[in-house]
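Students often ask why we bother predicting the structure of a whole assembly rather than each chain alone. The short answer is interfaces. A chain on its own may look different once its partners are present, and contacts between molecules only exist in the joint model. In this exercise we take two input lines together and write out one structure for the complete complex. Read the inputs first and try to guess which parts will touch.
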Amino acid sequence: NAGVMQNPRHLVRRRGQEARLRCSPMKGHSHVYWYRQLPEEGLKFMVYLQKENIIDESGMPKERFSAEFPKEGPSILRIQQVVRGDSAAYFCASSPRQVAGGDEQYFGPGTRLTVT
Amino acid sequence: GENVEQHPSTLSVQEGDSAVIKCTYSDSASNYFPWYKQELGKGPQLIIDIRSNVGEKKDQRIAVTLNKTAKHFSLHITETQPEDSAVYFCAASMHYGQNFVFGPGTRLSVLP
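Now the answer. The structure tokens for the assembled complex follow.
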């Protein structure tokens, strides 16, 4: 059973360009979370999605950031017009969200975004 | 909202000794507390978790204790090994799908 997959692992963008980060959850998981980690800091929640639904986007900046989890294909975190402050590691986690338990979140290897 | 504090920020122990990392949380509604280990350049790996209806949980050399009244929980690693060296994060969430609030992390170094 493959784990959570993220690509690309490293992404370099110039200021003003767009960044697209992809996440494929573990098989059987239909819940995806995105977190951002700045150097030497903990993870900060951004957005929680189920298939075709955004459940909680309270941690995501209102401008330039968007996320989706279509019926088919990976979840995508999109950052438009990137700025240097967007440089960070972005992690995706998936959860089975079963009625009995299922709170566990399993993380992917992350995408390290560098804005030059 | 929930706030999670974690201490110490760095911890060095000799191989074979025990390591203890402590976290406190602010929201009494939180009832799920996972611990993650993050190695350099990798994603966080779930190592143990505890729910609010349990006071202690153990898995080989790793144990977690929870004090709901005081709103704190701790990670205990016994017989530490060099491969235990990593950054450890605690987190708290309420039941069913709430996002995790993470502590700032503890960098553990196990010296051979």
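Check your guess against this: Residues 89 and 105 of chain B are 5 Å apart (CA to CA).
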